[in-house]
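Budget justification aside, the reviewers requested a transparent look at the raw inputs and outputs of the sequence design task funded under Objective 1. We therefore reproduce one unedited record. The lines immediately below are the structure tokens for a 435-residue chain.
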């Protein structure tokens, strides 16, 4: 058997590792037999030479098995989850999990914190006073059985190899590699004991995948890795060239999701379409519905009857949160109005500029130890294509400290591009569906 040093020597020269070697390496990373320097060398070589499909599959499976997992079989419901590659204003999970549970699926949703410029579901939900995301696997399994869903953060014993390798990728400049991203995302999903997975791959200036070629590479890698593991997977590519919905921030996004769940006619059209498309695909994957029309009817029913809204509130209660305390707590936080600097048509709202402005105001982390301001954020009152006149309110900005509002407002003002020509017809927010 080759030593880790010999294996690394092979990898430096572009050789592929056998699945058993990948597994031994991952075990060594978790048990301290592979040093951080050796793991870093592997990651860099993986970026330079790329992993083969077989290596990516072996790495994913080994990382998924590196800790605890949820048992398959959730009270007779098919377990189907959704994962997004991350966008600006992407609060879809908050609506989707209760909707899918209301339609008869089990949704064991383990989410991440904000990554780079994108917000994380964990940070959003933690803005609800008292809400607990750090529940042990045994308690999560009980919630799934009783209510058909939970929303939690990655516990220390779920795919620990991913946590170790992700931290090393972060400091060795090896985050952006399709094989490593695939293994990182899917290892956590494989450990959820799923019967199906829907991936939302975001494409555009506000996403990690800037164009359709990059998105296609990631989609292919994810699909092949799921196929190799026997996990049915549907990929939906969605546009991320403007914020999704009206709000960007943590608490403001939770409020937008709650209001939209209460009455679908309040949901921003893009948020409505992305959410319902993803839930419909989950229902088809889980075998709850046989046709797209049946799935669309089922989602409409769960949404308009407020069944999903009730599940959302039950989840908050079961996980220790208080909606009324949160509303009362945030009611008096400082806010300011952002006005249009000229007249014309809104040609674009730059998602990166919005994300950076919210991040600078405290709505995200620049380093892991940063404390997040749960209210820092923006709520737009206008959309791309709307006509505006100089001085008209474009948005409201919010923060715990009034002193950050002028910079936040200026950042939002700069992100909104007003043109004199009429806006062009835009393509749908849903770019592609791969079943
Ligand atoms: N999300 C993850 O969990 N891991 C990555 O590598 C990228 C996005």
């Amino acid at each position: 058997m080759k030593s880790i040093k010999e294996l690394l020597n092979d990898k430096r020269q572009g050789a592929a590792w056998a699945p058993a070697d990948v597994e031994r390496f991952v075990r060594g990373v978790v048990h301290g037999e592979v040093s951080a320097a050796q793991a870093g060398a592997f990651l860099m070589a993986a970026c330079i030479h790329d992993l083969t499909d077989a290596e990516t599959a072996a790495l994913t499976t080994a990382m998924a098995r590196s800790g605890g997992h949820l048992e398959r079989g959730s009270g007779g419901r098919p377990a189907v989850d959704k994962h997004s590659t991350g966008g600006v204003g992407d609060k879809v999970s908050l609506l989707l999990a209760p909707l899918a549970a209301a339609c008869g699926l089990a949704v064991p949703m383990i989410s991440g914190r904000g990554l780079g410029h994108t917000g994380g579901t964990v940070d959003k939900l933690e803005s609800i006073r008292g809400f607990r995301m750090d529940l042990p696997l045994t308690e999560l399994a009980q919630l799934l059985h009783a209510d058909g869903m939970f929303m939690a953060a990655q516990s220390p014993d779920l795919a620990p190899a991913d946590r170790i390798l992700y931290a090393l990728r972060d400091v060795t400049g090896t985050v952006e590699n399709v094989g490593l991203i695939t293994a990182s995302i899917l290892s956590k999903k494989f450990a959820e004991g799923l019967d199906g997975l829907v991936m939302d791959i975001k494409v555009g200036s506000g996403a990690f995948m800037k164009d359709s070629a990059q998105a296609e590479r990631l989609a292919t890698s994810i699909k092949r890795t799921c196929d190799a593991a026997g996990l049915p997977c549907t990929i939906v590519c969605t546009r991320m060239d403007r914020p999704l919905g009206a709000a960007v921030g943590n608490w403001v996004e939770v409020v937008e999701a709650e209001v939209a769940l209460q009455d679908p006619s309040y949901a921003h059209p893009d948020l409505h379409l992305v959410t319902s498309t993803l839930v419909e695909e989950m229902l088809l994957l889980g075998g709850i519905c046989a046709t797209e029309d049946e799935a669309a009817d089922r989602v409409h029913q769960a949404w308009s009857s407020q069944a999903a809204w009730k599940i959302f509130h039950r989840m908050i209660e079961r996980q220790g949160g208080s909606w009324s305390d949160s509303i009362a707590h945030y009611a008096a936080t400082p806010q300011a109005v952002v006005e249009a600097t000229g007249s014309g048509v809104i040609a674009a709202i730059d998602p990166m500029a919005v994300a950076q402005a919210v991040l600078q105001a405290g709505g995200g982390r620049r380093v892991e130890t940063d404390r997040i301001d749960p209210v820092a954020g923006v709520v737009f009152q206008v959309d791309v294509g709307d006509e505006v006149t100089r001085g008209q309110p474009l948005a409201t900005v919010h923060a715990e400290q009034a002193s950050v509002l002028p910079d936040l407002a200026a950042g939002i003002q700069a992100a909104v591009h007003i043109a004199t020509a009429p806006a062009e017809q835009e393509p749908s927010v849903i770019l592609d569906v791969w079943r």
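The CA atoms of residues 57 and 225 lie 5 Å apart. The domain at 80-155+175-325 is CATH 3.40.1030.10 (Pyrimidine Nucleoside Phosphorylase; Chain A, domain 2). Computational costs for records of this kind are itemized in the attached budget.
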